[in-house]
Write a structure and sequence with these properties.
- This protein is about 55% helix and about 0% strand.
- By secondary structure, the chain is an all-alpha fold.
- The chain has two domains: about 160 residues, Alpha Horseshoe (Serine Threonine Protein Phosphatase 5, Tetratricopeptide repeat), CATH 1.25.40.20; about 80 residues, Ankyrin repeat-containing domain (Serine Threonine Protein Phosphatase 5, Tetratricopeptide repeat), CATH 1.25.40.
- Helix 13 runs antiparallel to helix 14, helix 13 runs parallel beside helix 15 and helix 15 packs antiparallel against helix 16.
- Keywords: ANK repeat, Coiled coil, Phosphoprotein, Repeat.
- One of its GO terms (cellular component) is cytoplasm.
- InterPro entries: Ankyrin_rpt (IPR002110), Ankyrin_rpt-contain_sf (IPR036770), KANK1-4 (IPR047184).
């Protein structure tokens, strides 16, 4: 189908919930047993206070520092109400005391493969997003275990203020805007289009995104707009002059037939008025004669 990708790594969560919901629900089995298993559990913050105390007591001072560093980093950086000033102070202290740890801290992942960047983007906490990006250390194309990059999560945000859009554009320029989600193969553009995020669609188009990319079902961004009735977005896509309206999905449907099937007459009219669509339609008819 041409519907937007609604599944995450657990095949039930929506992509915009991926970073937050996975962190709460998913658990990665500890490898090995004994001290190794305890260490894995502690790093993910899963031990109860008594067990944690016992674990820390058995660790070397250096390892104790790393475990606390891990837990504090996600507490400071990855909450809905995380403050940029606090995150900045934390990073400054790490940089002053152990500068070699800074890249490690910025790109730390939890049990669900989410970095602080995944969380801050998912929470639309753009001041923290900017702070992380400005370090120049963020691995912006990291896929979490649901199969989404920070760029894909950004496509789902409702960024509208000039400051937020500027940070979003900074992220898009640093990341791969054409990367595909692991499960359905959707791009950031398809996600933004399906969810009606006009501002994000405009940003992605300005970054030279591939408008003709197809997901695992063969759907394009234009087909997504046609199915969901996003007339303004369909117009934006067509105005790029790069849309191939003759592309078909695995069911043999074009964007026009998708719009007709969904009874979105405004988009049907828009597509029929598009010169490229008319040319493709005429060519197809001529080939049958």
């Amino acid at each position: 189908t041409t519907s937007s990708e609604e599944s995450s790594g657990d095949e039930k969560s929506k992509p915009e919930e991926g970073a937050e919901a996975q962190r709460k629900d998913a658990e990665v089995p500890a490898e090995g047993g004994g001290a190794v298993a305890e260490e894995k559990e502690a790093e993910r913050g899963l031990l109860d206070p008594d067990s944690m105390f016992h674990f820390l007591f058995c660790l070397s001072p250096q390892r104790q520092v790393l475990v606390v560093l891990y837990q504090e980093w996600f507490r400071v950086s990855s909450q809905k109400d995380s403050q940029a000033d606090t995150v900045r102070l934390y990073l400054r202290q790490v940089g002053l005391t152990t500068p070699t740890l800074l890249p490690y801290v910025v790109n730390l992942t939890d049990g669900n493969g989410n970095m602080a960047l995944h969380y801050s983007v998912s929470h639309s906490n753009f001041p923290v997003v900017k702070l992380l990006l400005d370090t120049g250390l963020c691995e912006t194309d990291n896929l979490n275990k649901a199969g989404y990059t920070p760029v894909m999560l950004a496509a789902l945000t409702a960024a509208e203020s000039p400051d937020d859009l500027e940070v979003a554009q900074q992220l898009l320029k640093l990341g791969d805007v054409n990367a595909r989600s692991r499960q359905a193969g959707q791009t950031a553009l398809m996600l933004a289009v399906s969810h009606g995020r006009v501002a994000m669609v405009k940003l992605l188009l300005s970054c030279g995104v591939d408008v003709n990319a197809q997901d695992h079902e063969g759907s394009t961004a234009l087909m997504c707009a046609s199915e969901h009735g996003h007339t303004h977005i369909a117009r934006l896509l067509l105005e790029t002059g790069r849309c191939d309206t003759s592309l078909t999905d695995k069911n043999g449907q074009t964007a026009l037939s998708v719009a007709e099937g969904a009874s979105h007459q405004d988009i049907v009219d828009l597509l029929k008025a598009n010169p490229e669509a008319q040319t493709s339609e005429s060519t197809g008819t001529a080939d049958l004669l």
